[in-house]
Amino acid sequence: MANTPNPARTAQAGQPRAGDAWDEECDVLVVGSGGGALTGAYGAAARGLDTLVVEKTRYFGGTTAYAGAGLWLPGNQAQARGGLDDSAELGRAYLRAVVGDTTDHTLQDAYVDHAADTVAFLEDNPHVRFEYRPFPDYYAAPGRFDAGRAVFPVDLPAPDGPHALVDAVRPPAWAERLQLPTPDGPLTDGRALIARLLLALESTGRARALLRTPFKGLVTDPDGAVIGAEAEHDGRTLHIRARRGVLLAAGGFEANAELRRAWQELPGADWTMGAPGGNTGDAITAAAGAGAAVGLLEESWWCPSLRFPDGSAAFTLGLRGGIFVDGSGRRFANESLPYDRMGRALLAAKAGTSHDNPVWWVFDARFGDELPGITVVPADRTAFTEAGLWHTADTLPALAERIGVDAEALGETVRVFNGYAVSGADADFHRGEDPYDRFFVEPDPEGANPCLVPLTDGPFHAVQIVLGDLGTKGGVRTDVDARVLREDGTPIPGLYAAGNTTASVAGPSYPGPGVPIGSAMVFAHLAAQHMASTAQLS
Question: What is the pTM of this model?
Answer without folding.
Answer: 0.96
